[in-house]
Amino acid sequence: MGTYHARVEWARGADTFAGQQYSRGHRWHFDDGVSVPASAPPSVVRAPWHVTAAVDPEEAVVAALSSCHMLFFLSFCSAAGYIVESYQDAPEGIMTRNDAGKEYLSRFTLRPHVVYRDRAPSAEEFAALHHRAHEECYIANSVRGAIDVMPTLALAPA
Fold first, then answer.
1. Angle at 119 (CA atoms; ends 114, 121), nearest 5 degrees
2. Domains annotated on the chain, with CATH
3. Distance of alpha carbon 89 from the chain centroid
4. What is the pLDDT of residues 69-106, one digit of tens each?
5. What Cα–Cα distance (Å) separates residue 43 from each residue in 28, 39, 59, 80, 135?
6. 114 CB contacts (<8 Å, ≥6 apart)?
């Protein structure tokens, strides 16, 4: 089992802070110096108080879910002897309100498109690889919203 760390930093700067007038821009720091600009989403905090060119926490959850699923899927394909040429996903997370009126990411959709080199698994094997990746994915096992995986596969031209 592992323990994972990040560092999140925000500083007020010249903003007044009173009346919700402050930048939501901040930074996420990981591992050996990787730093990512982050902010509240523009759907929650209007300009000029969000940073459009930054990742918001909700997008990060969606990307983390997709990334985790992909990493397990690639590992299982490699172990089974398939050569994956490329993997692309356009994941989506839907925000809704629960019975208490609190917003949460209630549904996720992954749309991985997988291109294989030389040979591809059968449709049944392909679905089983994605099912197994979903079952093993740490992030999928950590979220409470529903997750739909809708993969497509292709064989790279010879």
1. 65
2. 1-55 (no CATH), 57-155 (3.30.300.20)
3. 10
4. 999 999 999 999 999 999 999 999 999 999 999 999 99
5. 20, 11, 12, 43, 32
6. 73, 77, 84, 86, 87, 126, 151, 152, 153, 154
